[in-house]
Amino acid sequence: MTDAERRRWLVRALAMVVGAPLAGAAAGAPPAPAAAPATRTGQDGQGAALPLVFGLPLVGDAVENRRRWEPLLVALSSALRRPVTVFSAFQYDTLAHAVQAGRIDFTLLSGRMALDAVIDGPMQVVAQVRRRRDPRQVEHRALLLGRIKDGPATLDAVLQDPGRWRIARGDRRSVSGFIVPQSELLLPHGIDIETSFKAETVGNHQDNALAVANGDADVATSNSTDFERFQTLFPAEAGRLRVLWTSLPTPPAQIVVRRGLPADQQAALRRVLLDYGQAPGAEAERAVLRGLQADLGYESADDGALLEAARMQRDLALRHARLAQWVSEDARANRIAKVEREYQAQVRRLGSTTRD
User: Fold this and answer.
1) What is the rounded CA–CA span in Å between residue 67 and residue 292?
2) Cα angle at 120 between 115 and 124, to 5 degrees?
3) Smallest Cα–Cα separation from 346: which of 138, 164, 114?
4) Cα(182)–Cα(221) distance, rounded to whole angstroms?
5) C-alpha to C-alpha distances, 354 to 83, 102, 256, nearest whole angstrom
6) With b meaning 16 or more CB within 10 Å and e meaning fewer, what string describes 217-246?
7) How many CA atoms lie within 13 A of 200 on its CB side?
8) What is the spatial distance between Cα 129 and Cα 290, in angstroms, rounded to a whole number?
9) DSSP letter at 153?
């Protein structure tokens, strides 16, 4: 079994571990049930505080990812006086279904997943990753990576003959792994990320970069933040890769919270997030934030923060509609009109919840 296979097996195993309390949470607290109902309250039948369930974001290795989040989750557990457990999933679908079923109390989501969780699910936005405001600093951007040896030497080599290359991409709901490369780069050149390449695999950014570095794929979607981490964790493999394309800055990810969570608990959670790493001398907390790809910490946000994600989804759907083959131009026009109606409904929904 290769190292990559071991990592994938371990992540799949962790997907079944739902309800193991974090170190530092309230001692003796009962584990969260595997399928807690969406209507659960903050206490069990004996009056003890039920654990809050955090949906672990799908970033790289799940064990390492949990370790990076643990100090912040312990701080949240202490402030809210409730234990916190982690829901760890291997696939986007697993996490999305848990969110929709009300089994997740709070998590970090971006793009399509955050939009679905708020528009069609039980969540609302309370904060988002604070992004750099200084134009001289590098912002979070989507990337297309290629292998230096026997891979495409330039972006044009990919765009002119995509059928020659194998691509490793993200899930359809991944902003930098699918949505931005598809909408901003490939579809404008008449290339569909799902059908135009010689072969495709779908995975997280780390596994996709490893696939290209090890010759299992020729190009991979990624983002600047994850690639920086990849360069640190896998310097030899990173040395085999080149950046073929860089997108415009992408919108930040949001912290979403289950609407049914009591208002005082939501306020406390938001307060901890906004204060974390901001105090003078809080170097340990700032180190935690760097590990979470949130160097500047978190800032207050509401559902209106998802308007950019809604626009990106609309633009992607419109590009598909205009490039696809239809039985008639009326069918194409009807599809385009439907996309616009759905987008306008999302704008009204998100705008109606924007706080002053």
Assistant:
1) 10
2) 60
3) 114
4) 10
5) 30, 23, 14
6) bbbbbbbbbbbebbeeebeebbebbeebbe
7) 17
8) 11
9) S
Instruction: Check: CB of residue 87 under 8 Å from CB of residue 55.
Output: yes
| 218 touches 152 (CB < 8 A) | yes
Strand partners, 54: 86, 106
- Per-residue model confidence as pLDDT tens for the chain (356 residues): 444 443 443 333 333 333 344 543 333 333 333 333 334 555 544 445 689 999 988 776 778 889 999 999 999 999 999 999 999 887 888 999 999 999 999 999 988 899 999 999 999 999 999 876 554 455 788 999 999 999 999 999 999 999 999 999 998 888 889 999 998 999 889 899 999 999 999 988 999 999 999 999 999 999 988 898 899 989 999 999 999 999 988 888 999 999 999 999 999 999 999 999 999 999 999 999 988 888 889 999 999 999 988 998 898 888 888 887 888 999 999 999 999 999 999 999 998 654 43
- The reported pTM is 0.76
Residue from 322, 320, 278 nearest 300 by CA: 278
According to DSSP, the β-strands at 123-129 and 298-300 are antiparallel
Distance CA 173, CA 14 (A): 22
Q: In sequence order, what are the beta bridge partners of 280?
A: none
The identity of residue 50, as a single letter, is: L
Spatial distance between the Cα atoms of 95 and 15, rounded to a whole number of angstroms: 9
Q: Whose CA is closest to 34, among 24, 20, 13?
A: 20
Alpha-carbon torsion 326, 327, 333, 337, what sign?
A: negative
